[in-house]
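Exercise 3.2. Students should predict the tertiary structure of the chain below and write it as C-alpha cells, then compare their answer with the key that follows.

Predict this chain's 3D structure.
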Amino acid sequence: MTGPGAAEDVGGTAGLAHARFDVGAAERDVTELCRFDRYQASDGIMAAAAYVAERAERAGLSDVRLLEFPADGGRHWWTFRAPSSWTPVHAELAGVTAYPDRPFALAAYSAPTGPDGVEAPVVRLGAGPGTTRGAAPESARGTAPGPAPGAGGPGRTRGAVTAHDDPERLRGAIAVHDDPDLPLPAALDLAARYGALGLATDRVSGPGRTGRIELRAGGPLLAFSLTPGQLADLVGRDRVRVTVRTHGAAPMPVVTALLPGEPREPGDPAAAEEVLLSAHLCHPRPSANDNASGVAALLGAAAVLAGARRGRRAVRFVWGPEFTGMAAYLHDVAPAPPVAAVNVDMAGQDQRLCGGPLIVERSPDHLPGFVNALAEYVVGALPQAGRSYSGAVACDTWAWRATPFVGASDHSLLVDRSVGCPTVTLGHWPDRFNHSSADTLDKVDFQELRRTATIACATAAVLAAAGEEDRGELERIATRWAAARLLECLPAPGAPPADRTAGRTADRARGLLRHRTAVALGALDGVDRLCGGPGDPGPRRWVEGLSAHVAGLLPGTRSEPAPAGPESRGRAGPESRGRVRPETAPGGRARPEPWASGAEPGAPEPVGPPLRRTWEGPFNLRGLAEAASPAGRDWIDGRLAADRSRAYALMLALAHGVDGTRDRAELARYAEYAAELPVGTDFTDGFLSVLVEAGWAEETTTAERGADAQAPA
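Answer key:
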C-alpha cells in the first residue's frame, strides 16, 4: 500500500487501509495500556513502553528500540527539561480516598510522607459555598484571604477550621480548596507559601470522577483530587491521616521503530527521507482515549503498512512521553527532520458520549506543506455508512472538522522553524471526560479509532510513496484544498450586509486573503518537494487567478489580485517551500525556513523594529515561563488561567511569527490570520515583552531588518 499506486489512487489507499485495520487487536491494545499508570518517567510507563515495543515487532516493524533517558529533572533537550522520575506506590487520605484504588486521586509529583503517614489538621483555604468570604478578588490573585469569620460558617461547630484570619494555620495541614473564586494555581501557591503539608480539592473534578492535578516536580506539597462528595466528607473532619509512598528509580522511555522504504539508487534524496507517525504514551491510568487510543491506532497502522509494498521513503514510528519524549528523540536520535508527519492524540472518542468531533488540526500557516490538503482529502475518502434517500450523496453519523494549528501535543516541536516538518494532528475535541478518571474504556468507539488510524495510515502511505509519476493526482488534491481555503475568505452566507467582513475593515479582509493565498500555494510547494522539483506552473497560476477573483468579490475592495508571498514565483525548495535560515539543528544540519518569512506583498510597510528569535530549538512555553522574570511568569499564568486554550494558541502563533522581519504590529496580524482568533495589542505587546525580557527574542534596529531572513533555497 505504500508502494506504487498508493499516491496515484489516494481514495483506494484509504479504503484498503480501512479494510485491513484490525479492530479487535486495537481493542486489546487499549485495554492493556489502560492497566498502566503512565507518568512520564515511572514504572508504569516503562511497562507500557515494553508492551508497545513488543507489539511493534510483532506488527512487522524493524529497528525497534526502547530507548531510556535519564529522568533527573535537570537535563535539557533545547529548552525542554527532562521529567523527574516519579512512581506512586501507595497513597491514602484515610477514610476519604486511596491510590491506586482510585485513579487520578493522587496528584502527579506529590511529595512522599514517611512510610507510616502523617496525622494532619484539616484547614479550609476559603470559606466555600454558603459562608462569608473575605476579599475574593485578592484571593484570585494568589494573596492570602482577608479577614472573615473563621469556624467554617453559620451553624458549623466542628470540622475543618478556616485560614482566613490566620494563614499560619495552614502549616503542616491539609488545605481544603473548595472556594470557586480561588483558582487552583493560587490555592497551591498559598498552601506552599504557608507550609501546608498538602492540598485537597474538587475544583478539577465532577460527579463520580476526579480530574488530573500536576504539581511542580520536587516541590514540598502533596495533593489529592477529590469528588465534591469526598471533599464534603473531608471538610467535616478536624484531622486526617495522610500517607504517600513513591520512588524515583525509573528512567524516561521512548520507543521508536521503522518501516524501511524500498531500496533506492545511491544519491537518491528519497533514500534518506522519513515520514513520521507519532503518538504520546503518557498520562495516568486509565486515560483510554488520551492517549491509549492513539498508541493503539499507530500499532494497528503499523501492521497495515508492514503488510503492503514499501514506498520510496521510510515510515518512522515514535511513542514516548508528550513533549519531552519527542524533544529527546529529535535532539539525540533523529538523523534528520522528517519530510512530513502525522501526530495522533486522542483517536477513539465516542462522539456522542464525549461530545466532540474528529479534529484534523492543520500544520501552522508558516509551514503548510502538502500534508494538510492530503489528510483532509483522506478524511473525505473514508468509507461512508450510508447514502441519502436517492443514493446520490454519501452520509454518515460521525462528524469531523479541520481546525487551525494550536500545538498542544508533540507536533508543536515538529512544526517549529528549527525543525521544519509539516505536521497534522488527529484527535477529538471537546471531550468532557478528558484528563479525568472517567476517561475509561467504555468511552472509546473502536470504529472511530479505526477511522482515525486509517487517516494516519493512508496519509503516511501516500507521503512515503509519492513521486513524479503521482504529480497530477497530488496537484489536484492540493488545488482543491487551496480553492476551499481562498473561498473561505468570502463573507459567510447569511451575514448582514453591514457585517459582511465580520466587523473588520476591507484592508483586513485583503490581508487575510494575501495570507491564505500564500498558505494555499504552500500546498503546491509541498507537492513539488515530494515529486523532486517544480512542475508545470498551471496549478499555481490557477490558484493566483482564483485569489484575484476572490479579491474582487470582497466588500469594499477593488477587483485586482491579492499578491501572495515570494513562493508564488515558481522556485523550487523544501517541502514547505521557502527560504533557509542560518539556524541549524544539532549536528549542524540546516533547517528549512517556511514560506511566510517577512512582510507580505501589499501589506502595510513595517514601522517598528523587527523581532528576531534567540531561543534554542523548538518553542516551549513552559521553558519560557521558567526563563521569564516573576512578572513575566505572572503574565503568562494569568492569561492561561483566564482562557487557557485561546491564550496558548495565540502565544504559539505569535512565537511562530517571529522571523527577524516582522515588527509587533505585523506579528499581531500574522497571529490573528494564522490562529483565526482576534489578538489585542495588549496581549501582543505583553507576550512579546516577556519574550524579549527573558532573552528569547530581541528587537533589532529597523536598519537591520531582514538580518534573520534567509537566502532562497
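Discussion points: The longest strand covers residues 239-247. The two ends are 32 Å apart (CA to CA).
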